[in-house]
User: What shape does this take?
Amino acid sequence: MAFLEVKGIRKAFPGVVALDRVDLAIEKGTVHVFAGENGAGKSTLIRALTGIMSVDEGSIHIDGRDALADRSLFDLVAYVPQELNLFPHMTVAENLFMPFDKSGFGGPVLSRSDLDEAARPFLERFDIHARPNQTVGSIAVSDQQLLQIARAATRKKFEVLILDEPTTSLTTREIERLLGIVRRLRDEGRAVVFVSHKMDEIFQIGTTVTVLRNGRTVGHRAMKDVTEAELIRLMTGDEVRLDQTFQPEVPLGEPLLVVEGLGGRGFRDVSFRLRRGEILGFAGLIGAGRTELMQAMFGYTRPTTGRVTIEGHRLKLGSPAAAVAAGMLYLSEERKLHGILPTLSVRENIGISVLDQICRSGIVSSTRENAVVADVITDYDIKTSSPEKKIMFLSGGNQQKTIIGRAMVRRPKILIFDEPTRGIDVRNKVEIYKIMKKLAEEGVGIILVSSELAELKRCATRILTMHHGVTSGEFEALTTDSDRLIGAIIGSGENRHVVD
Amino acid sequence: MSSTEVAPGTSVPLSLFARLAAVPLTGVITALVVIFVMSCFLSEHFLTPYNLTIMARTLAFVGLVTLGQALLLILGELDLSLGAIAGLCGVVGGILMVQLEWNPWVAFVACLMLGTACGFLNGLLLVGLRLHSLVLTIGMAGVYGGANLVATKGVAITGIPSEISFLGKGAPWGLPVPFMIMVGFLAIVSFLAFKTPFGRYVYAIGNNAAAAKMLGIRVDAIRVAVFALAGFLSALAGMLMVARLGTAQPSIGEAWVLPPIAASVIGGVATTGGVGSPIGAIFGAAIIGIIENIIVLFGVSPYWQSVVSGAIVVLAISFDSISRRYLRRED
Assistant: This one.
């Protein structure tokens, strides 16, 4: 039996199954990689493994014993979250040992010199380039990252260490140093769980890999037996079922949107056209610059170069109000951050986007508003006990349908769907595909940003790939073979296409 | 109505308290009624026309400032310079009317415009420089308060023309004119908040400014407009106070900084933005007003007055917080 063994765990939240029949076996002396797109269930799985969250079904065994029965076993699992949560104005040693009573400094008086003395071996062991009495804010980010790992080590006699995307804010050389520490821990006989989106790192450090997609484990591989393309195929779920596609069945119309040489933070020199009735897919890995491009195009952020033209009229950049007035709408991937108005009712959430249309001489007409809201609730099959219910109490899928419905009542000409089906169950996914298809057939131009290749292949008429902030290829969704598409996504040179 | 009635299929039985708590304003209205009734018993001088007129008039001045502050809080912002704006507008009004001998009505309107401009400037600095409203308005309170002292050297300007004094002193049928003006603006602001796109955008921005921006709402323009409106309402309060006193006191507005914030919170406005209503805030201001009044009538030593009124304010807020917890349990 492996040191940490998970069998068939399941965890459901209202409206969404976050983990479903997940199996896992983590051996000591290995680096075990968790791979999967955002929303695949990695964080939920980590929360289950650390004992922070209870599970609905299944078993977790640590060191051969049932951890769900004896929760003290979870003390053998240390976890370092992705974001730094250190106290920047306190010293390295203080950060290392806080809370003090848990790390052997329980007395009423705290001696700084004792703390500093005790910190030294940890700093040495984890290769942290800092003095114990320096404030954390003054040391390098990479040292802060290592300090977080060291801090986990001071508190627990851990056998399993979970690192959640530890390298996102590090430079190449700093990553090398961190990977060195990971190797040392591995060679000392500990198990390290490593979560990362960076392929080169995964292949450099990993012993085994478990791939998650939509809350399920879709594959376990030894790292030496798997290729990058296969891994991406597993992560993005490239099983094209051509029997159920959602490409619009109308001829393409005139160009609606022309983007020329657009550049900004995270992307550069992007040019493309979107025609009426088209669903244009954007493929790429996380960090390829797709969301950054969309937000800049929409005016949520300000691009530095280039121009955007809608129906022959040049769009004022940096103003979402201007983009909306020109007929463009953006449905963000961050539903909570950019979508819902949590403490307002479903009615107010929908009404807000059409207030200018339902006014009678500057006054909101409740009759018209209620009519619009009732239509949206029926048309988009939003499950709510009343339009007056606060939207934060709806399930994720129903929140998403509310947001889509809200966008629709404005009758947009161009719609940007950024990861519209993330965290949404299969049935609701198909509903959203049908909505996109119907809209495209009515003459709306649709941009679909998705991390799921299968989704793009099922819906898009054309797919643009992005890699490191530039467009790396253009493909007809139904005709291209997957290998070349994946090649363009991971940026191998021979698949590079020139885009008009 | 019994608290044990449960509709079929309802999984969580709702107590009467929880059901009432779900209706907005229940908490603050209950607190207001309880405090009012208690005050009637505590002092025979409370429920007299004379005393009620005094309370209504006092409520009017703080209420006008509260309307602006409540709208700002709903927007997710805050303005600590509203009191200083009121004071500055008051003394500038005094200078224009007495020293420069302007027509009092022209001076009155000019000062309202000055207050609007001060609020507008606050809003412009906030969105232009992306400052935090708390820190920005502490600074601006210093600027406006300092300008007040520069203009007056701390000395009150006496001899305000009597043409405008009815605005502050008048009370036909026992209803003070400032109170009626405040009620009028309460109606206008409530209408703005609930029946116009502008007001709904204010709630949207307070809820989730990023989402509001994504919807194409002109977030910055609305922020500036609400600051300007709050500046206008404060200037009005300041000018009515000048009319009431017959002198332009440099100290006008000093007590209008924190009570409007406390009143808004008591009235159900969330300091985090997006929640609450202008009428709730006015009820909150009324609660504070009654408490302060009854403490005086009851003969509490002046040294103890602020201890008692502070404690009662905390009690009133706790009542709301507890009812909210019931509300959440229901969902």
Remarks:
- Chain A is about 30% helix and 25% strand.
- Residues 494-500 of chain A have pLDDT under 50 and may be disordered.
- Chain A has three domains: 4-236, 239-327+412-500, 340-410.
